[in-house]
Amino acid sequence: MASRSLLQFLSGFSRPAVGNASLRLFSSTSVCRATLQTHNVIERAPSPWTLMAAVCLQRLPVISADCSPIEQQFRQMMHQMEQEKSLLSDHELQLLEDAERMSRKQADDYDSDREDDHGDQEIVLAQDLEDSWEQKMKSFQPALRVTADADQDLTSSERCLADSLVLLAEQQVGGEPLWLLPQARWQEGETLRQTAERALASLPAGLKATFLGNAPCGVYKFKLPQAARTESTVGTKVFFFKAVLSDCGGPPAGPGGPLLWAKKGELRRYLKPAYMTKVDRFVLGL
Amino acid sequence: MSAALSRGLCRALSRHTAPSSLLLGGHHRAGLSPWFAPVMTLKTSAPLRAEPKKKKKVDPRREHMLKERMRKKLKKMEKVAPEFIPLDDLITPTKCLDETRERSAPRLSFGESEGRALLLKEWCRYKQEQHMAEVQAVELALEAQREALEELKLESEELYQAALKPDPLLFPFTHEGPAYTPPKSKYEAPDGKYNDITKVYTQ
């Protein structure tokens, strides 16, 4: 018993001795400190969170949005005000001159010699010019702004050209298919942005995107239910990276999980509530 | 004949001056220099004897200096400050000052002018709300990013450092903005000719 207590006493001594040694090492040069720190890092247990990176791919609007009622009213008013304050243009002056000349021709005492005439040239009236311009414009058919069919098709990236769309994919998470931003698991030796690029490349459609920077724009922490928790995994952390769609080339739909293009308002229908609150913050609905 | 006379006269004068100078030399007083010959005798100094003038070394240098100074002054006077390039946008073209171009100002009824004022105020409020919403949205996004970076730092230091690095390939970044109608596939734009009449100024 005494020996045991002696052993305990000695072990008690040895621990602070080790502590003292580490303190002495700390007080020496910074190089030693750095090496000690890296030593500590290597010694630290690997974090219990599994890292994943997801890509928030956005197709930015292609056409300008429709004006709200107040915007329409204001636009009309501004147009009127600007016209009132403006000066007559060359074309308008020409129109007035032509109208005057016509009225003079119609008058009874018309004297064609008095006119500072243009000889035998045919006078092109400004009104005729206007008509010919209108004809030319009518012959051009612009593409339609809103196509009801395309809007309904959730998988096409041509829907709702006036809003920005976010890509969603249905992936298997914990055995269940869930709608979420396309994600991939982080592997050793690559940065998180490379993981996100891999996640985008793994999708069936050949989408080309420009990633906006190396830093993640959001994070979502998910703790596994108590039953599934082990010593090494407590949950997952998903880091989101923003990307802008640059080219929609490649086959429109291929094998693999279904894809969706959703507006910000429609995200609520597909994403889980907790996930939605995190994603809602960085997807700008401007 | 006249030349012989002048020569004779010169010789006589020189004969005269020589004994006079000797006499002067004999009656030398303190202060008298050989330059100050008495008024009575004809001055026969070097210029009269028509000898070639000896050039002093200092003169050419002085002349050179004078010329340099004159040249520098001329250069300074010639240097004019470069004219400013006129800004075409800020010059009102004379066409706009033509009186025949003025529109007749329409008379607005009281109701209309009131309506306009009220619409302007509503627009002001609408725009302010829009702006505040924008600012809030941007702040939320920044907050989300800050949280993400914090979480990443807790995870691993090297991934955090890699995330902080700037991306050199991102800029220059261009994106075609929204137009009124979407682009037409397989549209052939007609060829157009144009004459570029922009004025190019050189200073």
Can you walk through the features of this model?
The complex is a heterodimer of chains A (286) and B (203). Chain A has helices at 2-27, 30-43, 69-85, 90-106, 126-138, 148-152, 192-201, 267-270, 273-282, and strands spanning 49-59, 165-173, 176-180, 183-185, 208-211, 218-223, 235-247, 259-262. Chain A has 286 residues and is an alpha+beta fold. In chain A, strands 1, 2, 3, 4, 5, 6, 7 and 8 form an eight-stranded mixed β-sheet that branches. The relative contact order of chain A is 0.17. Chain A is 41% helix and 19% strand. In chain A, β2 (165-173) and β3 (176-180) form a beta hairpin. Chain A contains nine helices and eight strands. Chain B has helices at residues 2-26, 58-78, 110-155, 157-164. In chain B, α3 (110-155) runs antiparallel to α4 (157-164). At the A-B interface, α3, β6, β7 and α9 of A face α3 and α4 of B.
Distance between the termini of chain B: 74 Å
Secondary-structure element string of chain B: HHHH
The percentage of residues in β strands of chain B lies in: under 5%
Strand content of chain A is 15-25%
The termini of chain A sit apart by: 76 Å
Shape of chain A: rod-shaped
Global outline of chain B: elongated
Task: Give the overall pLDDT of chain B as a whole number.
Answer: 80
Oligomer: heterodimer
Number of strands of chain B: 0
Low-confidence stretches of chain A: 1-30, 32-44
